[in-house]
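Anyone up for a design puzzle?
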């Protein structure tokens, strides 16, 4: 089985692009955000778009949970797949996914910057940051409508320049992204209010005092800090594991070189002894 990877920053249109890319290169299977998709149908896995926090979404996307990874591995074995496309935000991420699902190594990397124009990427980023739109590359009809009633915005068809339908995708607004957008809007409103107060400080002769509950503000900030710390700890852990295995391999190679050198020295010593004492060589 050939394994391909599509790499690009978050919100740059990877999920939508993956359908046309897979069709162009005749790739029947896709791994995207925790889902195993085969010929346009959701076969196994759980989408990271349904998680409530950013850190939980990341863990879901990289198949951090053994049960989740095993269910997709079992499904992969049940299908005759000759090629598969793995989507991720970085080379490190797709390599982690491939390792967890045991479908490596990666034969070829595609990069979103080589497929879409800078204008198309910026448009996709704007849609993500301002409207919180995320794409799942399967039809909304394949999901439980009772469960997704509040998440699904609409389904759209992906069409080629020749007006041929490729597939239908589902657009959702994940809860964790809605929280992020709300936080950004709240911070923006606070900055505007602060600027307005500073600009119009002498508009009214009456003095207005705004009481700020410091405890309440700190309580709002704690979940944001916890998510940030968890993400950083997870990144540090992955880096440590990466360097651990790298150093382990280097130490093993160094040991082999040292043993080869030692064997060479012993052979040389025996040859000298043989020349002096006419001893039979035992190596």
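Challenge accepted. My sequence:
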């Amino acid at each position: 089985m050939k394994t391909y990877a599509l790499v690009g920053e978050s919100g740059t249109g990877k999920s939508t692009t993956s359908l046309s890319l897979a069709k162009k290169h005749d790739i029947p299977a896709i791994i995207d955000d925790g889902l195993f998709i085969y010929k346009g149908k959701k076969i196994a896995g759980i989408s990271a778009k349904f998680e409530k926090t950013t850190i939980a979404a990341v863990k879901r996307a990289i198949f951090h949970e053994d049960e989740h990874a095993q269910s997709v591995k079992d499904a992969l074995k049940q299908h005759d797949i000759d090629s598969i496309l793995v989507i991720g935000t970085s080379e490190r991420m797709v390599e982690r996914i491939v390792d967890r699902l045991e479908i490596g190594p990666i034969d070829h990397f595609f990069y979103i910057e080589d497929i879409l124009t800078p204008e198309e990427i910026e448009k996709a980023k704007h849609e993500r940051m301002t409207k919180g739109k995320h794409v799942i590359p399967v039809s909304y009809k394949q999901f439980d409508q009772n469960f997704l009633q509040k998440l699904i915005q609409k389904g759209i068809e992906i069409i080629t320049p020749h007006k041929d339908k490729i597939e239908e995708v589902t657009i959702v607004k994940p809860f964790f992204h809605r929280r992020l957008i709300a936080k950004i809007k709240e911070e923006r409103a606070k900055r505007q209010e602060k600027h307005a107060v500073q600009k119009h400080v002498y508009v009214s002769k009456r003095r207005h005092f705004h009481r700020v509950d410091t405890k309440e503000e700190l309580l709002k900030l704690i979940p944001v800090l916890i998510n940030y710390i968890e993400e950083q700890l997870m990144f540090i852990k992955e880096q440590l594991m990466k360097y651990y295995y790298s150093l382990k391999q280097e130490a093993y190679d160094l040991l082999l070189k040292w043993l080869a050198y030692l064997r060479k020295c012993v052979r040389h010593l025996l040859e000298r002894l043989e020349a002096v004492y006419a001893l039979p060589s035992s190596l």
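A detail worth pointing out: Residues 214 and 220 are 10 Å apart (CA to CA).
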